[in-house]
Write a structure and sequence with these properties.
Layout (H helix, E strand, L loop, with lengths): L4 H17 L3 E8 L14 H24 L4 E3 L42 H13 L2 E11 L12 E10 L5 E6 L19 E5 L2 E5 L8 H10 L4 E6 L10 H12 L2 E6 L10 E5 L2 E6 L8 E8 L10
Parallel strand pairs: 1-2, 2-3, 7-8, 8-9
Antiparallel strand pairs: 1-12, 3-4, 4-5, 6-7, 9-10, 10-11
Helix pairs in contact: 2-3
């Protein structure tokens, strides 16, 4: 008799955990994505049209996730703005947002999609992780209602956050991070009242997560490394290369070496805005990197990394 689908998923997940526990290394992947952008508009589009665009981008990301999993990757990071782009005002981004719950609710959207408000993007990302038995890291938008009793509540009655999510190989939401240090053009989003220091444990080390511009500030970047002692930082970004000092590969590699952690950096790819440069960076230097200012193609990178670089004999 063939096992049921839930039992099969549980068995695959257990096997992946055992394999990771048996090794001091893990295989990481990042995908530099040439994002399909929406048409520029001053008026919000319908939720159905917004979802159609996001599904086009997720089709591409799903292909990269499947390929990474087939090559043995345990985790894959996708870029900031990788699902809907960045051509938005506060009003026009609203149809793209979902209400993302606290991971403490212990939720697998793939198997329980109606537990909370409609969340087709979270459901699909969860299923990508579950169906491929891989951690999936993505950047989407979160919306949270507020009211006049909150002195910080915007006039439209909601907070909107640039948000990273992480789904484990069972498809469970295990991390949610609201970007704190917004770039000057991100007027469509609010920043949280307090900086968040988000970590989660895996069989292959302790992970932290933040987004793009956050890397230049003490909170959360330095706090995660120096106080919370993470082994690996997940870094969705939309990094515009500004020569000669803030080019993505050099800066992110130097940051990983200086902080003595792994940095999994997934950049958006848009050569007209000088967005390129992704990599798998370690305390010893780049394990793999990509920089392409000549084509509009995406790129998948994989490398085997030390799970706990602080315990490595070659730790700086």
């Amino acid at each position: 008799m063939l096992p049921s689908q839930p039992l099969l998923h549980a068995a695959v997940f257990a096997l992946a955990v055992l394999q990771a526990l048996a090794s001091d290394t893990f295989i990481a992947a990042v995908y530099e994505h040439a994002v399909i952008l929406p048409d520029a508009t001053d008026e919000p589009i319908s939720p159905d049209d917004a979802l159609a665009l996001m599904n086009r981008n997720m089709d591409v990301l799903e292909g990269a996730i499947k390929e990474a999993a087939q090559q043995g990757a345990h985790i894959i990071v996708t870029p900031e703005d990788g699902i809907y782009g960045w051509r938005f005002t506060r009003e026009t981004i609203y149809p793209y947002l979902e209400d993302i719950p606290d991971p403490a609710v212990n939720w697998i959207p793939c198997t329980d999609p109606t537990r909370f408000a409609p969340a087709p993007v979270q459901e699909r990302l969860s299923c990508m992780a579950r169906n491929n038995s891989i951690y999936v890291v993505a950047n989407i938008g979160d919306k949270k209602p507020c009211n006049s009793s909150d002195p910080g509540c915007p006039s439209d009655g909601r907070y909107q956050y640039n948000t990273d999510v992480v789904f484990d190989p069972e498809g469970k939401l295990v991390a949610r991070y609201h970007k704190y240090n917004l770039f000057r053009r991100e007027t469509q989003f609010n920043y949280p009242k307090e900086p968040e220091a988000v970590t989660f444990e895996t069989p292959f080390g302790k992970f932290g997560i933040f987004t793009c511009f956050d890397i230049l500030f003490r909170e959360p970047a330095v706090v995660l490394v120096s106080e919370l002692q993470v082994d690996t930082v997940l870094f969705p970004t939309a990094w515009m290369n500004v020569l000669p000092f803030l080019t993505a590969v050099e800066f992110h590699s130097a940051w990983a070496m200086g902080m003595s952690v792994n940095l999994l950096s997934a950049n958006t790819h848009n050569i007209s805005l000088a967005m390129t440069g992704s990599g798998l960076f370690t305390p010893e230097g780049p394990a793999a990197y990509h920089y392409d200012s000549g084509t509009e193609e995406g790129c998948l990178l994989l490398a085997e990394l030390s799970a706990r670089p602080r315990l490595s004999a070659t730790y700086p």
